[in-house]
Amino acid sequence: EKEKTLAIIKPDGLLGNYTNDIKRKVLEYGFSISKEKIVHLDEVTVKRFYAEHSSKSFFSSLINYMTSGPVLVMVLEKDNAIADWRALMGPTDASKAKITHPHSIRAMCGLNTEKNCVHGSDSSKSAQREISFFFGELSTDVITEHD
Ligand code: CMP
User: Tell me: the pLDDT tens digits for 65-97?
Assistant: First the structure.
């Protein structure tokens, strides 16, 4: 069976009109998008999602960033999806990605270590948690955009 991972196009990626370019790369690299939705996360929800970073110095800034606009959340599927999506995103620090991984998504649309345009699960355990966080039965408190 194919592996699943959770991907997020963050507010700068979505508002900067990078969605089509990102999706083109996703499909080109052999992923299928099995679920997707646009949500505008509130503070409580982002804090829960990034709970493991709650003691970090960048936490409050990360929460501001992730609540600054809508995000696109996707479940991506392929063999080795978790590692392959992380490779396609490139390094966390988008300013370094531009030099070391010029064809990566973060090189294309990220700015720096925080505003890095996309998220991907870092292990199969977090993929399971993050997919059910956004798409499981208990995900009803995530605020959904109505345009
Ligand atoms: P992400 O992969 O979604 O996981 C945690 C996020 O915190 C990360 O992407 C960045 O957006 C942000 N982040 C990680 N490290 C730093 C840092 N050193 N300074 C600011 N933001 C960071």
Answer: 999 999 999 999 999 999 999 999 999 999 999
Q: How far, in Å, is the centroid of ligand 1 from the Cα of 145?
A: 24
Residue with tokens 């992730």: 66
118: β partners? 9
Q: From the CB of 62, is ligand 1 less than 6 Å away?
A: yes
Task: Tell me the β-bridge partners of 101.
Answer: none
Ligand 1, residues 62, 73, 85: which to mutate, most atoms within 8 A of Cβ?
62
Q: 105, 70, 74: which is closest to 87 by C-alpha?
A: 105
Distance 114 CA to ligand 1 centre (A): 5
Q: What is the 3-state secondary structure (H, E, C) of 2-39?
A: CEEEEEEECHHHHHCCCHHHHHHHHHHCCCEEEEEEEE
Query: 52 is written with which tokens?
Result: 């493991």
Ligand 1 and 119: CB distance under 6 A:
yes
Contacts (Cβ under 8 Å, ≥6 apart) of 123:
82
Q: What is the ipTM of this complex?
A: 0.95
